[in-house]
Write a structure and sequence with these properties.
Strand order of the largest sheet: 1-4-3-2
Order of helices and strands: EHEEEEHEEE
Shape: globular
Number of strands: 8
Helix content: 10-25%
Largest sheet: 4 strands, mixed
Number of domains: 2
Structural class: alpha/beta
């Protein structure tokens, strides 16, 4: 049986303020926010949608959607609390410089760090992401 060609094109991340989160990831990754839409019907002013487009060969496009019932995930997981079911892994050449850059654009370094060559941080909405060598 022939398997159809499937290509990962984008990742959608929900957030309480998707346009602000797109700005953060645009700054973090050095990519432009190429699409930004205001709130939909019945959404608050911070609602809407935004997109940070990847250049060719530079990973998937990141989409950001408003989540009305947002609950910040907890990492590491704690019983009874919302936990992160996915996270972004971002390869870096210089871990210390990348962490410094991430913090300068709005990330927070996690207290617990699992490995010497990985740093866990949180974006402004509380999603964990990893920088790794």
């Amino acid at each position: 049986m022939n398997t159809p060609r499937l290509t990962l094109n984008s990742i959608t991340i929900t957030a309480p303020d998707p346009r602000a989160l797109a700005e953060f990831y645009g700054l973090l990754l050095g990519r432009p926010v190429n699409r930004s839409e205001g709130p939909g019907p019945g959404e608050p002013p911070q609602g809407g949608f935004a997109q940070v487009h990847a250049s060719e060969g530079d990973g998937p496009t990141l989409n950001f959607e408003y989540e009305r019932h947002w609950q910040c995930p907890v990492w590491p997981a704690v019983p009874g609390r919302t936990h992160a079911t996915q996270h972004l892994d971002i390869w870096v050449e210089d871990l210390d410089a990348a962490v410094e850059h991430a913090i300068s654009v709005g990330a927070t370094l996690a207290e617990e760090q699992p490995q010497e060559t990985v740093r866990v941080l949180f974006d402004p909405s509380g999603h964990p992401f990893c920088l790794f060598l």
